[in-house]
Amino acid sequence: MARNKSKKTNGGTIMPYTKRMPHYGSPKELISYILDKKHDGEKVAAKSSINCKEDFALLDFITTQKDFEMKGNRVAYHIIQSFSPNDNITPEQANEIGKRLCKELYPDFQCLICTHVDKGHIHNHIAINSISLKGKKLDDRLANPKEGLYGLSDASDKIASEYGCYILPKRTFSKTKNENYYHQYKEQSWKQKIKEDVEDLIIKCSNIDEMLEELSILGYEIKRGKHIAVKITGMQKYARLSTIDERYSEQNLNNYYKYQNNIILAGIRVSQNKFNSELFNKAKESKIALEKSMLSTEGKIYNEYQKTRYQEVKRYYQLKQQLEYLDKYNIKSFDDIESQINNKRTEIKSLNKILKKNKKDFDEIIEKTNKAQDYIKLFKEYQYMTSYKEMHPDYVLPVEAEIFLNLQKELNINSVNEAKQIIIDSKSDRIEINKIKQEVLNLQSELNHLDTIKEEKLSSSNLFIHNIKFGGNHIDYKNSNDECFCVNLPYTKEKIYIPKKYTAFNEKYQYYTMYLVDDKEYKIYDKDNKLIGNITGTELEKYVLDKKKEIDKLYSQF
After folding, report:
1. pLDDT greater than 80 at residue 512
2. CB 531 within 8 A of CB 460
3. What is the distance between the alpha carbons of residues 167 and 160, in angstroms, rounded to a whole number?
4. Which end of the chain is more exposed for a tag (fewer CB within 10 A), N or C?
5. 504 CB contacts (<8 Å, ≥6 apart)?
6. Ramachandran sector of residue 140 (left: φ over 0; alpha: ψ -120 to 50; beta: rest)
């Protein structure tokens, strides 16, 4: 039965090309053919065997079959293992691959491996006795993970790759209504790229924040909430790191960094002043505590200490970065913080307007460039596919061939050089796009840090005792303005206008806090934005908390 794994519902045809067929009647014709006994052009460049002698394989096969009184006319199996002319291997290496394949899959069976070099390409012919030296017949069902056809192709790939043979990446394509195979290909390509980038950065960085910062430098957009999610140019949606690989979940990354010992704390290069003194002292104390505790452990691992140390290292670098932002923008008062936050919001808004205005043009440039890059990636795969098709007419081209030809038609090109020219021509535009996106990311990162400082200053102020926390989805941006957020109050149908100056965003927990003055009156509006009354800060906090209790009580009844 010839192997065919190229159905459109299951992409990723394996290479080298392998197929296995049962042989009936007598093994004589098969063995004579692969040994070229008739000298009909099948040039044998190398041969080997396991559990039998090469020149007496026929006698050994028949003797084993008689010893176990084998029934049935399926007397042997014939494997063809073809290598592409693009694979730089010798006939001797090809024969080694075939022999190793037999030892791994059929260790108790008699196998004869002959390497032929006719027809312009190297290929192995392998004869396998259908019954083992222990009297067991070969189980060729697909369900058999070792002796079945899939076991053959997987083992062939694994061994051949060790000799430098190119193996087509394993991808799965589902037959959909619109059969958008390119979209499915892109999804799997992005996952592989993200995995490679994350693997590379994990070992280079000392904590999660540093790793995510390095990812952003590579052009990734980062979203932190319940899960860490990333997106890079060309991706339609964010991808959770934990979905790509469970090892990249925030908890597992935290655990990894907890037990890293090679931590060298960077110093604080900021002068202390009246406004930053509290923050400065916290950072200084944190650094001293970490350095002394690391010295006292003398290189030993204490599990609970490792957990505490990791959290403290993370806290130290957050404090250090906040000090650096205060110094960078010469912030000496609360009003200075608010001024910088407003500046950052204005800059982000301005850049997002540019991106939005030119979104269609930018998207077309990025899409065309991505397709040119994919054309180049698939070109090598297509060369291999077509070489196997030329060798074996029954070889079914995988889905990737269809994707490649569609890209070629869509881009109206016929060579890798033309694809490279598309990429070169779009270089300046892509640099400009990435520059703007990176600037937005950097500004957003600075804004988050400034918001953290602002939150701490507001929380420690004697002016604000009452506050209400709310998610970003509660902000009615349509009715908000430069001065105030229009906020749909949690657990209610009412809304309030709160000065942005007295709100702060917590990046870690992804929520906002509005700070309220006890006896100040705030205007309350209904869902249609009509004024329905006034309420003091103390009453407003109590009103929201009471509404929360009502809802909690309602849910507890079910």
Report:
1. yes
2. no
3. 8
4. C
5. 451, 452, 454, 455, 458, 512, 513, 515
6. alpha
Give residue 306's pLDDT band: very low, low, confident or very high (50, 70, 90).
low
Both tokens of 306, joined, read 């490792």
Is pLDDT at 65 greater than 80 in this prediction? yes
Higher local confidence (pLDDT), 142 or 283: 283
Buried b (16+ CB within 10 A) or exposed e, 241-277: bbebeeebbeeebeebbbeeeeeebeebebeeeebbe
d(CA 499, CA 512): 13
pLDDT in tens, 334-362: 999 999 999 999 999 999 999 999 989 98
Within 10 angstroms of residue 316's Cβ, the number of other Cβ atoms is 22
Q: What is the mean pLDDT of the chain?
A: 87
Angle at which helices 427-460 and 334-357 cross, to 10° = 150
Closest by CA position to 433, among listed 508, 504, 506, 367: 367
Q: Which long-range contacts (CB under 8 A, 24 or more apart) does 382-385 make?
A: 383/84, 383/86, 384/15, 384/84, 384/86, 384/166, 384/168, 385/13, 385/168
Q: What is the DSSP string of 221-290?
A: EEEESSSEEEE-TT-SS-EEHHHH-GGGSHHHHHHHHHT-----PPPP-----TTTHHHHHHHHHHHHHH
**Whole-structure pTM over 0.85, yes or no?**
no
CB 286 within 8 A of CB 316: yes
Token representation of residue 116? 């032929």
- pLDDT score recorded for residue 307: 65
Q: What are phi and psi of 420, to 5 degrees?
A: -65, -35
Distances in Å between the Cα of 455 and the Cα atoms of 18, 30, 52, 287, 323 are 64, 81, 79, 23, 15
209 CB neighbour count, 10 Å cutoff: 15
Is there a cis peptide before residue 398, judged by omega within 30 degrees of 0? Answer: no
CB 109 within 8 A of CB 51: yes
Run of H or E including 190: helix 181-202
If pLDDT is split at 50, 70 and 90, which confidence band does 515 have? very high
